[in-house]
């Protein structure tokens, strides 16, 4: 279709032109060269001889040999704590205006630097995502409609020399002036820190908006839509937003939420996955005939891939110092990899914690398959979150139930290990029947799990509970709304604490 919407026109005006898709391998080498060039005089660049690396015949191999792999704890301990103390030119030129706070699916809070160059890169990646909408079958006036971005508060925490908040709040606080007429819920509502009040205000203002697309984590988008429908006494959200056509998902896999979300719609939406993290905007779905996302290979992020096998990982889920590490050019399709990134925020060979699979190398398209620490392998199960999500989709069909959240752990019972599941659903299901069906499904689709069930994994149990209990736990122990996520895998100690809290709640 013709790209005639005002939003696309203004995006093209700001950035000058629409580029063709780059060659991924060539673009990645150029990104790495630019990263090393810009950071060569920082403390990190001097420590790791960036100036010398730039003279290498094979800049990628030289970089991998000289710079160690980092996780958050290592980067923070060795380098980033200086930024929080006000030092400059540590891992990236200049000082820091922002830190993204992220507890993700763990209990440990992280403060991740967000440089001005990263804010600019996120904007450009956002424009790439908007421009790719021309590939989807959308009405010609779609691009003139408003975009509701449900994220964290843009009312950031002020420190002596910087501000802190979640990445969605930092990004929203820095949206271009030309975009603000399209952006909802608007600055005032987006500044609210109380989740319930924010959703209430959105519900009140909803009749005055003409929303064309939604953006946010699925569970919180669904909760918001339910409140808009309830408050305004609607049958579906399309009664009030008839031009709503697109939902841009991110943060977690969307498929487990599709069935329940569509009960709030008069018609299905165009669903587009994105991969925006506290460390950067990594990938976005650019075409309608796939659910995979294209890595943004030409915009300030260099990607590396570690085969997700036991010999490359330690007991804490970290990449070992001697692990095999591949560039995008070397990586293969349909293999689970731990993703490493180096970015314009001064992250260097940084283990973001996600596992991904290349589904189309020529297009640099990926799927997120899980988390390195949310990979269940206590007694040889070798279950990825990707496999768990697929199994839950099968359970939804088999039991005619909506499953929105779940968590699993390997726990000891009577001296033996079992897998215990809590599954958040919209109606009662017999736990024993669910456990048996889930066990059979996983055995059929994961040979390692099947072997474990014949040896060290002595049983499987499941309890199906109202999904609201998951959100009560999240509100009590983590936070509600914004970027908060429910973990899929817990260590035994954390799981038993979760279980104790869940069992203390009334059933409904």
Account of the 3D structure:
With 508 residues, this protein is α/β, with parallel strands linked by helices. Among the domains are: 118-277, 3-Layer(aba) Sandwich (Rossmann fold); 385-504, GMP Synthetase, Chain A, domain 3 (2-Layer Sandwich). It contains 17 helices and 19 strands. Strands 6-3-7-8-9-10-11-16-15-14-12-13 form a twelve-stranded mixed β-sheet, sandwiched between helices. A four-stranded mixed β-sheet has the order 2-1-5-4. Strand 4 and strand 5 form a beta hairpin. Helix 13 (385-399) crosses helix 14 (431-445) and helix 14 (431-445) packs across helix 15 (447-454). The termini are far apart. The relative contact order is 0.11. This is GH3 auxin-responsive promoter. InterPro entries: GH3, GH3_C, GH3_M. Residues 295-361 form the GH3 middle domain. It comes from Spirosoma linguale (strain ATCC 33905 / DSM 74 / LMG 10896 / Claus 1). One of its GO terms (molecular function) is acid-amino acid ligase activity.
């Amino acid at each position: 279709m013709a790209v005639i919407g005002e939003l696309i026109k203004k995006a093209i005006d700001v950035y000058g032109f629409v580029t063709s898709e780059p060659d991924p391998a060539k673009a990645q080498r150029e990104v790495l060269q630019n990263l090393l060039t810009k950071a060569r005089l920082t403390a990190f660049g001097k420590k790791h001889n960036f100036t010398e690396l730039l003279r290498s015949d094979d800049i990628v191999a030289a970089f991998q040999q000289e710079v160690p792999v980092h996780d958050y704890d290592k980067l923070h301990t060795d380098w980033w704590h200086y930024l929080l103390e006000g030092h400059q030119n540590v891992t990236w030129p200049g000082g820091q205006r922002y830190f993204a706070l992220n507890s993700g699916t763990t209990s440990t809070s992280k403060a991740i630097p967000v440089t001005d160059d990263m804010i600019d890169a996120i904007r450009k990646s956002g424009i790439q995502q908007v421009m790719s909408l021309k590939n989807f079958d959308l009405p010609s006036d779609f691009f003139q409609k408003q975009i509701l971005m449900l994220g964290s508060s843009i009312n950031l925490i002020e420190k002596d020399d910087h501000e802190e908040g979640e990445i969605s709040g930092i990004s929203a606080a820095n949206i271009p002036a030309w975009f603000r007429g399209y952006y909802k819920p608007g600055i005032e509502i987006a500044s609210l820190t109380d989740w319930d009040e924010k959703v209430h205000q959105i519900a009140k203002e909803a009749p005055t908006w003409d929303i064309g697309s939604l953006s946010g984590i699925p569970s919180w988008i669904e909760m918001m839509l339910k409140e808009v429908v309830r408050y305004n006494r609607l049958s579906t959200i399309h009664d009030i937003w008839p031009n709503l056509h697109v939902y841009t998902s991110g943060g977690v896999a969307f498929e487990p939420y599709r069935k329940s979300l569509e009960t709030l719609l008069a018609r299905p939406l165009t669903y587009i996955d994105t991969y925006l993290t506290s460390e950067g905007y990594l990938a976005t779905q650019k075409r309608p005939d796939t659910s995979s996302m294209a890595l943004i290979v030409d915009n300030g992020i260099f990607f590396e891939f570690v085969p997700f096998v036991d010999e490359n990982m330690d007991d804490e889920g970290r990449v070992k110092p001697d692990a095999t590490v591949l560039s995008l050019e070397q990586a293969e399709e349909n293999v689970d990899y731990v993703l490493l990134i180096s970015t314009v925020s001064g992250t260097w060979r940084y283990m973001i914690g996600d596992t991904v699979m290349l589904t189309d190398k020529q297009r640099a398209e990926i799927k997120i398959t899980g988390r390195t620490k949310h990979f269940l392998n206590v007694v040889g199960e070798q279950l990825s979150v990707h496999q768990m999500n697929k199994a839950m989709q099968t359970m939804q069909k088999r039991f005619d139930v909506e499953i929105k959240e779940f968590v699993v752990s390997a726990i000891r019972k009577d001296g033996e290990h079992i897998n215990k599941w809590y599954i958040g659903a919209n109606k009662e299901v017999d736990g024993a029947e669910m456990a048996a069906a889930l066990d059979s499904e996983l055995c059929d689709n994961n040979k390692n799990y099947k072997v474990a069930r014949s040896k060290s994994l002595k049983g499987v149990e499941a309890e199906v509970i109202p999904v609201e209990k998951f959100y009560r736990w999240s509100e009590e122990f983590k936070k509600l709304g914004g970027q908060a996520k429910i973990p899929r895998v817990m260590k035994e100690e954390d799981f038993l604490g979760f279980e104790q809290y869940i069992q203390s709640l009334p059933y409904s």
